[in-house]
Amino acid sequence: MLTSVRKLARAFRVPTLQDREMAYLSEANDRIDLEYRMRQVDRGMFRKSAF
Known about the structure:
By secondary structure, this protein is mostly helical. The chain is about 65% helix and about 0% strand. It has helices at about 1-10, 15-25, 30-40. This is DUF3563 domain-containing protein. It comes from Neorhizobium lilium.
């Protein structure tokens, strides 16, 4: 029962800032793309407010 509750909680959890950044970086195709994405993350691409 407890494991099913944990699975349910994981399914509805919101990804953290670090999770989103790592997912974005892991989608890089090559080193140049990775460096470009790293610069964007360093500039605060995921930290900007929507408002």
